[in-house]
Write a structure and sequence with these properties.
7 helices; alpha/beta; globular
């Protein structure tokens, strides 16, 4: 059984079994209302002016549209950001077309690199499918007319580090080999 508080109210209505667990059943009208009401409450009561939606969340397009409409009812200029995924350009286009700003992972991979072993532009290297034209595309906001996913260059968020990636400083240290990424930190400040 689910540990979600919604599961203790009415598990069959609010939750949907998937694999060995449960996810929010965003197809249900009251679940959509709950999402919209929660967003409106946070925007109104706490003056939240932006939300970031994780890519691996269970929200479908209907739920994302519900969140967008509710948030914009309370605060028309709210910033709504969704994680982008380099391997899913069509999904990134869909999120951008829906009105979400999208985390531009190809920018990070092109500029910094895919990994410390596969270095990017700042190291004078071309990781993955990157070349001078792709770096220009990233710097210009990954517009569709240059082969990117965005119709509007205001839609991507170019970033170098997030909570799920190495900090830029660590990426550089590991890439240059001055610190072994697998070694334990024994003495504070030694690295």
């Amino acid at each position: 059984a689910s540990q979600s508080p919604l599961g203790s109210i009415d598990q069959q209505y609010y939750l949907k079994a998937i694999g060995g667990g449960y996810i929010l059943n965003t197809e249900r009208p009251m679940v959509k209302k709950l999402l919209g009401d929660a967003i409106k409450y946070w925007v109104r009561e706490y003056r939240i002016d932006g939300y970031r939606i994780l890519r691996d969340s269970v929200l479908d397009l209907v739920a994302l549209e519900t969140i967008k409409q509710a948030a914009r009812e309370e605060y028309p200029d709210i910033t709504l950001i969704a994680e982008g995924e380099e391997s899913d350009p069509a999904g990134n286009e869909l999120l951008a077309d829906l009105g979400y700003t999208v985390m531009n992972l190809p920018f990070r991979h092109g500029i910094l690199g895919v990994s410390p072993e596969e270095k990017g532009f700042i190291f004078g290297a071309w990781s993955g499918r990157n070349n001078p034209a792709s770096v220009e595309r990233y710097l210009l906001g990954s517009p569709r007319w240059l082969g990117g996913p965005f119709t509007n260059t205001g839609r991507p968020v170019n970033f170098l580090s997030t909570y799920k990636t190495l900090a830029v400083e660590d990426f550089i240290r590991f890439s240059e080999g001055s610190v072994d990424s697998r070694a334990a930190f024994v003495e504070p400040g030694s690295n």
